[in-house]
Write a structure and sequence with these properties.
alpha+beta, Pseudouridine synthase, 2 domains, 10-stranded mixed beta sheet, two-stranded antiparallel sheet, 33% strand, globular
Length: 239
């Protein structure tokens, strides 16, 4: 714990299975009473780059929100799940299908540029004053029907690998894009259903995950002053 005024940005590589809030809360304890914020959270099952802002640097939230994010995602075909990810309940299943590399590659072309995207039913989007996930827990289909499409931009999307029943894809997109929705919609477009099996955020703006400290290493720290990037340096790195 410190009593001095701190200001800066911390780059963290969050592991899969850890809540983003856990990382933020750990930093809060180290820099208390300084304000702490996150420049965009990651789902629990996802890993990768997390930007933590300390002190007056929390004002950078809108700047971070406006830059592109890049991900490597694994899409599993043959099932539709309530959460559009590995944690969801299976809604429907296709036992036998015959997808090819070219079929998936060509389908990804439909996601390039500006697209309309319906958020996952289990998301933090508001539905009549309630979070969508709160509605979805009671009535999944009501939540799904109540969600309005939103415009997002896909700068780049490409197929990295194909394994018959799953695909590894790279996505560079605008802030606010749900990769879970891309997985769901890709499966639907191919006629077999799909969900997001794994996700790693590899880049925010021009900052790469390799420039971040792993959370396992961060947990060994008792003083993170030397790990904080000054705002000016961070903004140059962000691009």
């Amino acid at each position: 714990m410190v009593s001095e005024q701190l200001e800066g940005v911390l780059l963290v590589d969050k592991p899969s299975g850890v809540l983003s809030s856990r990382v933020v809360n750990f930093v809060k304890k180290l820099v208390k009473p300084n304000k702490v914020g996150s420049g965009g959270t990651l789902d629990k099952f996802a890993s990768g780059l997390l930007i933590i802002m300390v002190g007056k640097a929390t004002k950078l939230f809108e700047t971070i929100k406006g830059v592109s994010k890049s991900y490597i995602a694994k899409v599993k075909f043959g099932e539709i799940r309530t959460t559009d990810d590995v944690y969801g309940t299976v809604i429907s299943k296709v036992e036998n299908f015959n997808l090819t590399y070219d079929m998936v590659k060509n389908a990804l072309n439909d996601f390039k540029g500006e697209i309309l995207q319906v958020p996952p039913a289990f998301s933090a989007v508001h539905i009549n004053g309630k979070r969508a996930y709160e509605v979805a827990k009671k009535d999944y289909y009501r939540a799904l029907k109540s969600l309005s499409p939103r415009r997002v931009y896909i700068y780049e999307i490409k197929l990295l690998d194909f394994m018959g029943d799953s695909a590894i894809i790279f996505v560079e997109c605008s802030g606010g894009t749900y990769i879970r929705s891309i997985a769901r919609d890709l499966g639907q477009l191919l006629g077999v259903g799909g969900y997001l099996e794994s996700l790693r955020r590899v880049k925010i703006g021009n900052i790469k995950v390799e420039q971040a400290i792993k959370f396992e290493e961060l947990r060994k720290e008792t003083d993170i002053k030397n790990l904080l990037l000054p705002k000016e340096k961070f903004l140059k790195m962000l691009g």
